[in-house]
Design goal:
174 residues; alpha/beta; 5-stranded mixed sheet
Length: 174
Amino acid sequence: MPRCAGQRVFAVGFSFWKRSFVRQFLSGGTHVRFVGPRAFETIKWKDGDTVAVWGRRYDAALSQLPKSVSVWRMEDGFVRSHGLGSELQRPASLVFDQTGIYYDGGAPSDIEHFLANHDFTERQRARGARMMAAIKDARVSKYNLAGSESLAGLREAANGKSILLVAGQVESDA
């Protein structure tokens, strides 16, 4: 979570249902101001201000900000919830990124940089392996949807024919 205490934090363009949990993740003792895209363009920026935005929204406007303003892109975390955001399910985790965002392969992100440049100790590697095993053993997925536990039903229904997986997201996702 970004450290925003003592700073002005502007959360731009968040839908009403996301505001309560976004405020919890961002506050850190700071007042979070939710603003729309038009109001965002009229703000008189101060050194140390922070802007939070969902994903890659408003990239053009963000690129015009003074260098003294921090930008944090937010997105659902890797273990999101039990259910979908499109069903107004609160996420269990969020990703905060000042460089880009993890799903955009055409631009760098904080997690990419960290994974490529961090010198992991053996203890950290062992802990990571244990965590990955625990997640796999518990059959935890990003959305943990009912009925997603097995592909056996699909294989039966295919009756020996090939199965084509079409990965999709909600219409407003990148």
